[in-house]
Amino acid sequence: MPILKQLVSSSVHSKRRSRADLTAEMISAPLGDFRHTMHVGRAGDAFGDTSFLNSKAGEPDGESLDEQPSSSS
């Protein structure tokens, strides 16, 4: 994936970036992992599946497949 420029405003640049600063190479193809599972309204009200907010970013919910509980007899 290409490295994106940081969108940090400075005294030289205005807060809005121009369209010329963004190129097609900076945008990846769809990754197939998008799901519209919740909605946030103008007033801040939200509904839908918010369970992803409880997990650490980038980690699946539940136990890892590598971690097997030890069985004792």
Which descriptors apply to this entry?
about 70 residues, little secondary structure, about 10% strand
Kindly describe this structure.
This is CDC42 effector protein 4. InterPro entries: Cdc42_Effector_BORG/CEP, CRIB_dom. Pfam families: PBD (PF00786). Residues 1-20, 45-73 are annotated as: Disordered. Residues 27-41 form the CRIB domain. The chain has 73 residues and is mostly loops. The protein is built from no helices and two strands. It has strands at residues 38-40, 46-48. The protein has a two-stranded antiparallel sheet. The radius of gyration is 20 Å and the shape is extended. The protein starts with 37 loop residues before the first strand and ends in a 25-residue tail after the last strand.
Task: Choose one word for the global shape.
Answer: extended
Helix content: under 10%
First-last Cα distance: 49 Å
Residue fraction in strands: 5-15%
User: What structural class do you assign from the helix and strand content?
Assistant: little secondary structure
**Poorly predicted ranges:** none
- Spatial strand order of the main sheet: 1-2
The whole-number mean of residue pLDDT values reads 68
**Rg calculated over all Cα atoms:** 20 Å
Describe how the helices and strands are arranged.
Blueprint: E1 38-40, E2 46-48
Antiparallel strand pairs: 1-2
